[in-house]
Amino acid sequence: MSDWFVVASVTLTPWIAGLCAALLGWAGARGDRAARLAAILVGVGFVATVAVALASVVAPHQPEQVMFGSTSVRLDALALILSMLVLGLSALIQVFAIRYLRGDLRQVWFVVAANLLTGFTVLMVCAGSVALFAVAWIGAGAALVVLLATYRPLAQARDGVRRTGFRFMIADMAFLVPVAILLVAARGDIPLDQLGAVAQSLPLPVQLTSALLLVVSALARSSQIPFHGWLPFTLAAPTPVSALMHAGVVNAGAILLIRFAPAIAPHQSVMIGVFAAGAVTLVYASAVRLVRPDVKGRLVFSTMAQMGFMIMACGLGVFAAAIFHLVAHSLFKSTLFLGAGMGVRQRAIDRDLPPRKIHSPFTLASAVTLSVLVPLAALAAAKWMFAPSVSPAGGALLVFVAVTASVTLGTVLGTTFSPRTFLTGTASIVVLAFGYVALLQLFTGAVEPSTTINAAPAWLLAVPSVGLIAVQLLSRNPHRLAHLRDLVYSRTVTASLPRPPAIPRPPVTTGVLS
């Protein structure tokens, strides 16, 4: 089978699906027909990608690659994993949208824009050179803005489009500066596997500036502080748009950091900045998520927190862990968005339940002790079995995961402490710990970039750990910290809402009234 056919079967199906949907819509066909055809074509692309991935596992060989001069489309392990993720989720979400948008006048608009976004995203993850990655990066951002305009007659939708478009434009301009510097230095396009040599040939101030600008673009696309002002204002988009966006587009920041790691990872100061942005966003978004009253709003800030964890992992140099969390988060969050209607119903049920009873100090102490010991023991056993030679940064990340698992288990046991909840929670933590470490080790062997990494110090993970524990303690309504809790609550609620428009002051008049 030729490389041309393999690469085309993976990368071209979304474009063909979007073109067919546009032609059917222009010809006046029903939106359902265009949506079904597009979903089938994208599904065919997903099946083809799975077949290529299985063939590469059964008979390892050089990745398929199509060259256009120095520009190339390359199907390495990372490209295959992310292409399967993007095409599979896009096909699933488009099938869901057939019924969700049935009879909607904007159905064809959604189908065309969704496949445009899918096509650019697949091209981005399969890009084998700097110039092609840049084209796909800019195209994916523009396609997302078009997709958010599905319900553009709504004022809230127009506000989301404006905020997203403005921030993407600023961040993409920052991205194009280092890309132009690299292309000029190489006098042409640069294969991504030669990016490190070109970047290291630049003067040190230029290297640092280029790395910082690349990081700015990655943080903006993943809605990280201080560029987080667009994602919370996209809630007016229909549910399939939200599912597609949260399952794929916000992950692009980690993809950029990994593909451009040879130009970013050698500089520890830049990696510390990446870690700090991710850690601050993780704690902030976790706090806001607890106070949002709406289901989709909670999901949005949950996504920001997960993206913060992913960016933080990149700052530690544990890129394989970032990709693993990217895949897991995409699968999990798309499911939550597609089931948001059921979430509204469950939220109403939980609100009407009687207040939680307060347990005795002995019960609370037992819950805290068990919630600390169980995750630590499970992850230690899983590390000993699957990853005995994990790096210091990887070990520190496992400790951080143990802290977050302890917070989750402690919340469950602190709410309902019984033999049933203890056994269920313990079994879940053990299964998740062993599965997490095993899959993380598998991803490390498949997608870890081979480049010099001067990562952020692993001890910095103590800062977000303390922040998450503090947020959880404040949410448990401690009477001694009531004033601090109320202050944090009011600030997080205010931060998660749009600012009202400024009221113009009345003109100042002078003179004496008669």
Uncertain residue ranges: none
Strand-residue proportion = under 5%
Shape: globular
Q: What does the average pLDDT come to? A: 77
> What integer value in Å does the Rg equal?
24 Å
How is the main sheet built?
2 strands, antiparallel
Number of strands: 2
Q: What is the count of helical runs?
A: 21
Oligomer: single chain
Distance between the termini: 94 Å
Helix content: over 70%
| Class by alpha and beta content | mainly alpha
Order of helices and strands: HHHEEHHHHHHHHHHHHHHHHHH
The largest beta-sheet arranges its strands as 1-2
Please, could you describe this protein's structure?
The chain is mainly α. Among the domains are: 1-128; 361-495, no CATH class. 73% of the residues lie in helices and 2% in strands. It has a two-stranded antiparallel ribbon with strand order 1-2.
Provide a quick synopsis of the model.
This protein is mainly alpha-helical. The chain is built from 21 helices and 2 strands. Among the domains are: 128 residues; 135 residues, no CATH class.
